[in-house]
């Protein structure tokens, strides 16, 4: 009988101990797998979210977040200069602000996030009902609402809302204007409780009291199919050295160093804790198993089993427990990740489309490597006990007892 089959028989001879070991390892490894997903999940999810928007570079006047620092002056000229680059398909100025939105169904206005953009081929939103914004469409003006704001206002595409916007720092004294709801859209960085409205730059200027200043909080730059983000970023910096151009990779790297570092540290600590617990659990189970079988192991050595063979039996038993538990841990970990993801996404300010746990082949590979290391570490002490076992003294003790 080969060593793996012999280890399997040793394991199933005591089913309660075997089941306890497999269940314990599955629970520990499921948590370990989730922590591996968490360590890079936010980074991968944010990268994917930025790519889905369709813009490869973001240009601001300062390193502060858009809307919290000075604006880009002469935004239309800057956008035209950037769009003239051969590797750029489009440059879209964005203006951020706040707005009080109301309708005939509500007595009190709702405070919503408000931004404006004149985009052509690519747009920083997705229409789910109605139609998109059109430049210069009619005298009334148009606005897009996200689903939650539309439901609270009781408005659908084609109906009218009243909007008073503030497109600059400080309160606005602009009179309210009526805008037609062109459609209902999803905005990629909205959290589940967010209220968001969007319009064209012309309609935003009307809603902000006729403030027709050529400024923008952010420029979104879409690249052509042959455009390289790093080369375009450097070209933008040569055109306007006073501006800050960031590729999607730059944005993710900055977030990883600041906002996402907490989750990376938490995942690292929990990985270390779960690995330590797994090693201790398997070591205790194997040690108990070996201590209960000392007489049997001594008898096998007396019958001709080599020291290497009985030591390999202990190692294979550890590999079986961790292998079965680790295989069960993958589906358990994925199910647990969905539950934990829903809990973490309930935090305020987290975009609804952002995921904390993202499946990645790299995590599976690291998970397997860590399990192999755990099996080896957990079997070191039981293997040492078996290797140092005195055959004659053990058999004598078994006979006397």
Description:
The chain is an alpha+beta fold and 401 residues long. 52% of the residues lie in helices and 18% in strands. It has twelve helices and twelve strands. The strands form two sheets. It has a six-stranded mixed beta barrel. It has a two-stranded antiparallel sheet with strand order 2-10. Helix 2 runs antiparallel to helix 8 and helix 10 runs antiparallel to helix 11. The longest helix is centred in the first third of the chain and has 39 residues. The protein is elongated and about 100 Å long.
Q: What secondary-structure arrangement, pairings included, does this model have?
A:
Elements lengths: L2 H10 L2 H39 L3 E4 L11 E2 L1 H9 L4 E15 L7 E8 L8 E5 L11 E4 L1 H7 L6 E7 L10 E10 L9 E4 L1 H7 L7 E2 L1 E6 L5 H11 L4 E4 H10 L3 H32 L1 H9 L4 H38 L16 H27 L3 H10 L1
Parallel strand pairs: 4-9, 6-8
Antiparallel strand pairs: 1-11, 1-12, 2-10, 3-4, 3-7, 3-11, 5-8, 6-9, 7-8
Helix pairs in contact: 1-10, 2-7, 2-8, 2-10, 2-11, 8-11, 9-12, 10-11
Summary keywords:
18% strand; two-stranded antiparallel ribbon; 12 strands; alpha+beta; six-stranded mixed beta barrel; 12 helices; single chain; 52% helix; elongated; 401 residues
């Amino acid at each position: 009988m080969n060593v793996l089959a012999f280890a399997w028989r040793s394991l199933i001879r005591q089913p309660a101990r075997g089941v306890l070991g497999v269940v314990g390892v599955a629970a520990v490894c499921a948590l370990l797998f989730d922590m591996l997903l968490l360590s890079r999940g936010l980074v991968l999810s944010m990268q994917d979210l930025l790519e889905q928007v369709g813009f490869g570079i973001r240009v601001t006047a300062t390193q502060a977040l858009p809307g919290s620092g000075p604006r880009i002056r002469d935004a239309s000229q800057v956008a035209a200069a950037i769009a003239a680059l051969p590797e750029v398909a489009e440059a879209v100025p964005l203006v951020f602000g706040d707005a009080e939105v109301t309708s005939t169904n509500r007595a009190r206005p709702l405070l919503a996030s408000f931004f404006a953009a004149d985009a052509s081929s690519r747009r920083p939103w997705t229409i789910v009902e109605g139609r998109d914004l059109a430049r210069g469409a009619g005298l009334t003006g148009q606005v897009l609402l996200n689903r939650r704001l539309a439901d609270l206002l009781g408005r659908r595409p084609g109906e009218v809302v009243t909007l008073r916007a503030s497109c600059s720092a400080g309160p606005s004294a602009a009179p309210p204007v009526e805008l037609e709801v062109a459609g209902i859209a999803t905005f990629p960085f909205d959290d589940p409780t967010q209220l968001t409205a969007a319009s064209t730059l012309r309609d935003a200027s009307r809603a902000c009291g006729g403030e027709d200043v050529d400024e923008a909080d952010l420029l979104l730059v879409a690249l052509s199919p042959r455009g390289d983000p790093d080369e375009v970023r450097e070209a933008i910096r040569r055109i306007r050295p006073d501006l800050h151009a960031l590729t999607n990779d730059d944005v993710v790297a900055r977030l990883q160093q600041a906002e996402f570092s907490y989750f990376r540290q938490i995942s690292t600590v929990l990985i270390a804790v779960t690995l330590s617990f797994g090693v201790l659990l398997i070591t205790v189970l194997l040690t108990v198993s070996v201590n209960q079988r000392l007489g049997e192991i001594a008898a096998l050595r007396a019958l001709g089993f080599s020291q290497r063979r009985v030591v390999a039996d202990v190692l294979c038993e550890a590999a079986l427990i961790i292998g079965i538990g680790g295989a069960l841990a993958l589906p358990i970990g994925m199910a647990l990740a969905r539950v934990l993801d829903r809990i973490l996404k309930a935090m305020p300010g987290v975009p609804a489309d952002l995921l904390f746990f993202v499946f990645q082949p790299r995590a599976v590979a690291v998970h397997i490597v860590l399990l192999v290391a755990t099996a080896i570490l957990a079997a070191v002490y039981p293997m040492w006990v078996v290797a140092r076992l005195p055959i004659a003294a053990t058999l004598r003790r078994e006979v006397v007892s």
